[in-house]
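INFO  loader      accepted 1 record
INFO  loader      residues=311
INFO  predictor   begin
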Amino acid sequence: MAQMRGKTGWRATVWGELLSEFMGTFILLAFGAGGDAVAVVGLTMSGRTLVIFQGAGGWLLITWGWALGVTFAVYVAGGISGAHINPAVSLALAIRKAFPWKKVIPYSVAQTLGAFCGAAIVYLDYYHAVDAWNLAHHVVSRASSGGLTTFSIWATFPAKYFHGQMGFALLDQIIATFFLVLFVLAVIDTKNLSVQSNMGPFIIGMAVMAIGIAFGVGTGYAINPARDLGPRIFLWMEGWGKNAFPGPYGYWWVPILGPLIGSSIAAFAYRYFIELTLIKRQEANVNAESQTTQEELAVSNMTPVEGRKNQ
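INFO  predictor   done
INFO  writer      dumping tokens
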């Protein structure tokens, strides 16, 4: 987070940070859900392709959309608030004592509001395509089972192969978010292989893409309570009804609780598997350098006679 020099009014308070988190999460949803909209309804309803998700190309389009959304969100907001853009990240940093606990809830609220507004801007741009898709596929109501296709542009639901067992869906979110936060902690840790040339945001975006490719299909890799809850509230208001709340099999709570658990585990795992070793090695290097310096000083302070005696 950038350090403030001198007073700048209310922008020097936590409110400036909250605006930053709002804008960062707004960008995340605008490009993440925007990419989903292109893949699900934009290409087909514009006549640019005939079938959605033909092969793996549609999924790769989606993973790139979220990866770039994260990348540019961090570039925009990172200098002010650190661009958590995810309550799970804020929680992990608080557990590590790298972020004040009193800011976790305000940050989470700002992130959820940003996600809500990001979802709204994508809806404003694509609702004609959504309605065209529903008409072409005889979807009579957004709240019906057929409405899940367009619902998936903004929010997530479990894969059919879980057969309604939310414990497995929860585990999927825990695992995916564990890797996200583990990678974030590694990238921002200056004791580790620090990312050079201001490439940190891009590498974090690539981490999100990797998770989407490897762990994305089980639950849609929300890996972020705000990224799912904000749009879910918006979709409920816009007529997706039970697809939003409670969601298929009562799923709505899974992308909230799962990421919080996964990020907490990652905070402890990074600390005990990686960071403590880095600290010990750093201390050992400092001690070795100090000892070498003391020996060099001792040699340089010897008189010529003392030097000959030691030869």
